[in-house]
C-alpha cells in the first residue's frame, strides 16, 4: 500500500517541476522577445560597424561559415546535426553575448538554445547576425571583431591582411587563449593547416564535436571549453 503513495507523490513532484520549468522558460522567451524587439534590433540598426558582410571576400566568407557554422543560412538558429559544427554556432554565440550578463552551463545552455531558436533567429535576419558576429567576436583581450584583431595582431586594417592572416584569426575563434597568435603561434599555425584541409575538402569532420580536426596534446587541451574536445574521434 505504501508503494503506490510514494509513486503518486513522486509523479506529482515531477509534474510540478515540469510545469515550473515550462513556466520559467516561457517567461524567459517572452522577456527575450520583447527585449529583442524593443532594444536589440533597433540598436543593431543604428550601430555603425567597421565591417559589413561584403567586407569579406568570397573565400573569407565561405571559410568562416565552413568552420564556424556550415549550415548557417539553412538552420533555424541551432544545428545539432552537421559534423564539425558543435552546439554553439553563430546564433547561439550571439545569444550568449546579448542576453547573458553571466553565463552558466545547464539551465543557461537550455535558455541560450531556446532563445536562439525561437527569438533571435526569427527576429534578426541572417545577414544582420553575421555582421554583428564579424564585428564583435572575441579574439583575445585586446581584440573584438576582425577589424580590431587585424589592427592589433598585424598592424594593418582588415582589408589589407593576407588570406593566411585571416585564417590565423579564424583559428582563434574557438579558443582565443589556446590558439592565440602571439602566445601560441605554433598551435595557431597547426590549426590553420587543419582548417585549410577542411576548407579544401581533404578532411571531413568525423562527428558533431570534431571541432579541432585532429588529436591535441595534453597542454593544448588545457583551458579548452568543456565538452569541446573528444579524443575518441581520433583513435
TrEMBL record:
Transmembrane segments: 7-27
Domain Glycosyl transferase family: 46-196
InterPro entries reported in the protein's UniProt record: Glyco_trans_51, Glycosyltr_51/Transpeptidase, Lysozyme-like_dom_sf, PBP_transglycosylase
Metabolic or biological pathway: Cell wall biogenesis; peptidoglycan biosynthesis
Database matches in Pfam families: Transgly (PF00912)
Subcellular location: Cell membrane
GO molecular function, one term: peptidoglycan glycosyltransferase activity
UniProt entry keywords in alphabetical sequence: Cell membrane, Cell shape, Cell wall biogenesis/degradation, Glycosyltransferase, Membrane, Peptidoglycan synthesis, Transferase, Transmembrane, Transmembrane helix
The keyword Transmembrane helix appears for this protein: yes
UniProt GO BP: cell wall organization; peptidoglycan biosynthetic process; regulation of cell shape
SUPFAM superfamilies found in the cross-reference section: Lysozyme-like (SSF53955)
Gene Ontology CC terms: outer membrane-bounded periplasmic space; plasma membrane
Predominant subcellular localization, coarse grouping: membrane
Catalysed reactions listed for this entry: [GlcNAc-(1->4)-Mur2Ac(oyl-L-Ala-gamma-D-Glu-L-Lys-D-Ala-D-Ala)](n)-di-trans,octa-cis-undecaprenyl diphosphate + beta-D-GlcNAc-(1->4)-Mur2Ac(oyl-L-Ala-gamma-D-Glu-L-Lys-D-Ala-D-Ala)-di-trans,octa-cis-undecaprenyl diphosphate = [GlcNAc-(1->4)-Mur2Ac(oyl-L-Ala-gamma-D-Glu-L-Lys-D-Ala-D-Ala)](n+1)-di-trans,octa-cis-undecaprenyl diphosphate + di-trans,octa-cis-undecaprenyl diphosphate + H(+); Preferential cleavage: (Ac)2-L-Lys-D-Ala-|-D-Ala. Also transpeptidation of peptidyl-alanyl moieties that are N-acyl substituents of D-alanine
Protein name per the record: Glycosyl transferase family 51 domain-containing protein
